[in-house]
Amino acid sequence: MCAAADPSINSNGALIEVSGLSVYHGQLCAVDDVSFKVERGEVLAMIGANGAGKSTLLRTIAGLHQATSGSIVFNDQDVSKMAPHRRVTLGISLVPEGRRLFTSMTLEENLLVGAHYANKGPFNIAKIYELFDWMHDRRRQRVGQFSGGEQQAVAIGRALVTNPQLLLLDELSLGLAPIIIERIYALIPEIIAQGVSVLLVEQDVTQALNFANRVHCLLEGRTSLVGTPAELSSEEIERAYFGSHLSGYSQSSHGGAG
User: Fold this and answer.
1) Scanning 22, 160, 190, 198, which has the fewest C-beta atoms within 10 Å of its C-beta?
2) Cβ(199)–Cβ(167) below 8 Å
């Protein structure tokens, strides 16, 4: 069941438009004919259960997976075949699931990796230290000594220092304590205020609904529901998330990676 797409979406104003995207891992179809847009200045939440194809979708947009078919148009430019580092320089930046930091390097060295590909914009290393006020004093400490929440903050800082127009956030809450999740999500409005659009992959439906302008649900690689948090009922979301044969399960009963 699919809700009607948000009527406020204007195809001429979309920052990124994904059309008919399919991605295979060998013979396995991970993403099947998925289409959506992210408008400038909005948060689009991509939700779904473990194995739904959410992370594969983000990694394909970032250029880390090759699409089998379909297109990715960013700022009116087809980036479907473009190398990952070129997508970064155009303004697409990924905070990957599991952070993927250089743990033997210092906090500041990790930020400098991102700054190497920096576009003009509001974010530099000094701005990241303002955003995360604990970082400056620990900038020379190796990130392998940091907690999971601290490492997540460094990963976000590394992505932001590239000055992205589109920030891809993959499972921010995975493995973190609730208080840390709350602190990290509290930064999203400030990031949006700097002119950054966000495509958020999240398995925590509550977090997604709290911060998203629109929601796009995947089930076994396919679109199962689209709409705004206000117009979608909990029953619709539950059916789209788990499938009709599992509709008796509660949203909170699911955990694990996306």
Assistant:
1) 190
2) yes
| pLDDT (tens digit per residue) in 139-161 | 999 999 999 888 999 999 999 99
**CATH number of residue 104's parent domain:** 3.40.50.300
Residue 98 scores a pLDDT above 70:
no
Residue 4 lies in a domain: no
In-domain check, residue 3? no
For the stretch 45-70, pLDDT in tens is: 999 998 999 999 999 999 999 999 99
Whether 2 maps to a domain, the answer reads no
Structure-token match 């956030």, residue found: 169
Look at residues 232, 234, 229 and name the one whose alpha carbon lies nearest to residue 3: 232
Helix (H) or strand (E) holding 110: helix 107-115
pTM of the model: 0.85
Q: Which two tokens stand for residue 71?
A: 């297109």
Question: For the residues of 36-48, what is the DSSP string, one character each?
Answer: EEEETT-EEEEE-
Give the closest residue to 106 by CA, choosing from 154, 162, 176, 156.
154
What range defines the domain where residue 188 resides? 11-253
* Euclidean distance between CA atoms 106 and 109, whole angstroms: 5
Cβ 94 vs Cβ 168: under 8 Å: yes
If one counts the domains in the chain, the total is 1
**Nearest CA to 58 among 41, 39, 38?**
38
